[in-house]
């Protein structure tokens, strides 16, 4: 009777083989990341990308807040609230961008 788990020529089942391949791929990415020399221009480009990912939501929040304040004036400033909300969204966006894998 055959073993219920499929094995390859090395005697590993499929799940173990997939895990070993995944770990090998991640290790290869780590080695490439350590040996890669970032140039001035690539760092400058990353700085610009992160900057715009913060600035754009902030400016959109200000624009929406000014529109709402002029259209429907109220007791609270929508401009200030949406500026803060846009800044928070932009910072979270930049953080996600910086901690993610750049392939």
Keywords, please?
103 residues; 0% strand; elongated
Helix content: over 70%
Taken as a percent bin, the fraction of beta residues is under 5%
Low-confidence segments? none
How many independent structural domains?
A: 2
Query: Helix and strand succession?
Result: HHH
Give average pLDDT, whole number: 83
What does it look like?
This protein folds into two domains: 1-36; 39-99, no CATH class. The chain is an all-alpha fold and 103 residues long. It has helices at 14-35, 40-71, 78-99. It contains three helices and no strands. The radius of gyration is 25 Å and the shape is elongated.
How is this fold's topology laid out?
Blueprint: H1 14-35, H2 40-71, H3 78-99
Helix pairs in contact: 2-3
Short description:
Helices cover 74% and strands 0% of the residues. The protein is mainly alpha-helical. Helix 2 (40-71) packs antiparallel against helix 3.
């Amino acid at each position: 009777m055959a073993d219920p788990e499929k094995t390859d020529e090395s005697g590993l089942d499929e799940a173990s083989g997939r895990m070993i391949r995944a770990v090998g791929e991640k290790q290869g990415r780590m080695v490439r990341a350590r040996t890669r020399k970032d140039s001035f221009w690539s760092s400058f480009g990353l700085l610009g990308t992160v900057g715009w990912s913060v600035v754009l939501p902030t400016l959109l929040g200000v624009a929406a807040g000014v529109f709402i304040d002029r259209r429907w004036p109220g007791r609270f400033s929508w401009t200030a609230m949406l500026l803060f909300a846009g800044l928070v969204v932009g910072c979270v966006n930049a953080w996600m961008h910086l901690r993610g894998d750049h392939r």
